[in-house]
Each structure stands twice: as structure tokens, then as C-alpha cells.
Amino acid sequence: MPDLVVEVLSPSTERVDRMEKFQEYAQAGVQEYWIVDPDRGTIEVYTLERAAYRPLGVWHKGQKARSTLLQGFEVTVDDILSF
After folding, report:
1. Do β-strands 4-8 and 42-49 pair in parallel, antiparallel, or remain unpaired?
2. Distance of CA 75 to the CA centre of its chain
3. Potential cystine with 25: which of 30, 36, 43, 83 (Cβ 3.0-4.6 Å)?
4. Which structural domains are found in the chain, ordered by start?
5. Quick one: pLDDT at residue 82?
6. pLDDT at position 72
7. In sequence order, what are the residues at sequence separation of 6 or more whose Cβ sits closer than 8 angstroms to the Cβ of residue 82?
8. How are beta strands 4-8 and 32-37 bridged, if at all?
């Protein structure tokens, strides 16, 4: 299983990504879970603590999302959403 997963939401997958995969990845031990929401213009980052995800933060356009897993890694939300 990977240490980091990044999901890009779409209307047809949002429920699965936010509910089912969220729980499955936590149970599998994925250390960090990023949810990119193009409709809201956000990146949400969750970190695994005691087998459950805790929110690290929600970043919006003009901000930089960051990782605790990859020390020093930051990405501008606009750069991710421009693809």
C-alpha cells in the first residue's frame, strides 16, 4: 500500500472518495490522504493518527498545501487545479 494517496474528486466519485476510500485507506495504513476538489478550488490533507484520519488543513486557491509525510513539500493549489 502507498504512503500517500491523492484523489481528484468528480461529481460521480465524490461519495466514494470521501466515505468508502477514506475508511479503506485508513484501515490499510495509508499515512496521508489528499483530496483535490476542483469545484470548490481546494486541497484537503488528512494524516493518519491511531488508525484514523485527522485533518491537517484545507487550502484554497492562492495558498500552498503542505505535507507532513514529505518534509518540506508544498504545492500551490492553483498549480494543481490548472491541469
Report:
1. unpaired
2. 12
3. 30
4. 4-81 (3.90.1570.10)
5. 87
6. 94
7. none
8. parallel
Distance of CA 59 to the CA centre of its chain: 10
pLDDT digits (tens), the chain, 83 positions: 899 999 999 999 999 999 999 999 999 999 999 999 999 999 999 999 999 999 999 999 999 999 999 999 999 999 999 87
Q: DSSP letter for 33, please.
A: E
Q: Give me the half-sphere count of Cα atoms (radius 13 Å) on the Cβ side of residue 58.
A: 5
Query: Which residues on neighbouring strands pair with residue 43, listed in sequence order?
Result: 36, 59
Give me the residue label for grid cell 486557491: 61
Give CA–CA dist 61/64, Å, rounded.
8
Whether residue 80 contacts residue 59, with contact meaning beta carbons closer than 8 Å, is answered with no
